[in-house]
Amino acid sequence: MEEEVKHRQMVARLLYSIWTRSGREVSGLADPILSGRVDVLGDYVMMIHDNSEINELPSSQNIIDRVSSSQLTYKDFVESYMNQNKPVIITNIIDSNEENNWRVRSDDWLDPTKTRPNIKHIQKLFGDELVSVHEQEKAGFTFARPRPTKMTVTEFCDWWFKHHHEEEIVDENNKQLHSLLPPKILYLKDWKFLANFPSYPLYQCPFYFQNDWLNQYMNGAYKFVYLGPQGSCTRLHADVLGSYSWSTNICGQKRWYMIPPSYTYLLYDCFGHRLASHLHQDLDEGGRSSSTFYPGLKVARMHAIEVIQEATETIFVPSGWHHTVENMEPTLSVNHNWINETNISWSWQKVKREIDALCNDAAFRKSNEDGEEYNLCSSNNKDDSCSQVEDDLYLLWIIVSKKAMDTLPLLPHDNSNRKEESFPSIFRSIIPVLKGIQCLTNTEMFSKWKTRSNCHVDDLLKLLSDAKLF
């Protein structure tokens, strides 16, 4: 189905190019919208009337397992959730025996009730720290993208004290909380606390998630702290480079909507260009336009898993699962992205999809006046999409090349009788990625990137071949 949808999106992009004169006149969409042609095109692209299966929801589709850590071994976690790419809520990870390893659960970070962040103490301890903060125009999801900015922890805490008093102004029985919250909402996100304070024992990474190539080779750059008031949100997305993620609520409550990877195509507009901002964008005020451009959202919601994550619970988000997150009350959480041999293939497939999308878009661009072929990602034509692809490819190369070089010396010296069945799972997962990168970097499109990135993939593959690993 995915290949058919890609073909239909190419048809839609061709029509978009015709209607808008290759994107130069977006006003050209007015007549197709008013005449209903975009609605028909959306149904065609999303196969809404061609595929009855997407309108049928299995009874177990929107249920997530909840398992106590005392009953979940690492082997069971790998076999039942990592290998199956299936989400799960793990409870009791922060039990009484591990409280001493989770300083983030102490009075330094939480109030005496353990139910709210201790904002005064956080400000006192880390007030000078510069952090990333996202500003929402109001509580809850909107079409508008939050505005990222930098500020000190003290500035964020000052805003919290001044503006965030919902517990004082909202009656406990009032369910319409969003309308009473301050119009501007700040969300402290992606605080690389452990990278900045490596000796501070903030928490202990649960053993389920410690096989982590991403943070091993990126110096902990994907370990985060989040602190947000009620109504703060994270828009619809899938995690960086097809990684897994785990998130533990230190206090507070989150609501997640999660979409299985097989329904990702339903989340894009009918031209395959833009991802919806959230799962209910077509129901927003003024959502007529969104329902026209995003006809798949109604069906996507049928296949979404809604999860309420309580305080001290940990959620495992598998590779490729798009999701939104909303803080239902003031929430402090910690989060890691991570990659290992189980999901490195997802990372490679993500990079390939990005490159395919760029190539498909470039196919609709005209040659220049001299008749020369359009050179994707050249210095003259490079855009944000090209830069993102190159960044993702570089990150993937760093991870797999360093892991290969670190693992190679650990192999037995006598390779003469080595059989494929005995190959370490690390190399079984890495070698296909390295071969894919080799094929890619031997093309003209990425030859310059190969030089700039010092990508010695040919030499590395020869080294692995000499070691009789393939």
Give an account of the 3D structure.
The chain is α+β, with helices and mostly antiparallel strands. It has helices at residues 2-20, 30-34, 37-46, 74-82, 119-126, 153-163, 166-169, 193-196, 213-217, 288-293, 297-302, 344-363, 384-407, 425-441, 444-452, 457-466; strands at residues 65-68, 88-91, 130-136, 147-152, 185-191, 223-228, 233-237, 244-251, 254-259, 305-309, 314-317, 322-327, 331-338. It has a nine-stranded mixed sheet with strand order 1-2-11-8-13-6-5-3-4. Strands 7-12-9-10 form a four-stranded antiparallel sheet, with no helix packed on it. Strand 1, helix 4 and strand 2 form a beta-alpha-beta unit. The protein is globular. The chain contains 16 helices and 13 strands. Mean pLDDT is 85; it is low at 167-173 and 366-374.
Helix share, percent: 25-40%
Distance between the termini: 33 Å
Average of per-residue pLDDT values: 85
Low-confidence spans: pLDDT under 50, at least 5 residues? 167-173, 366-374
Strand order of the largest sheet: 1-2-11-8-13-6-5-3-4
**Rounded radius of gyration (Å):** 24 Å
Number of DSSP strand runs = 13
Multimerization state: single chain
The tally of helices reads: 16
Portion in beta strands: 15-25%
CA-based shape: globular
What's the main sheet like? 9 strands, mixed
* Strand-pairing-aware structural class: alpha+beta
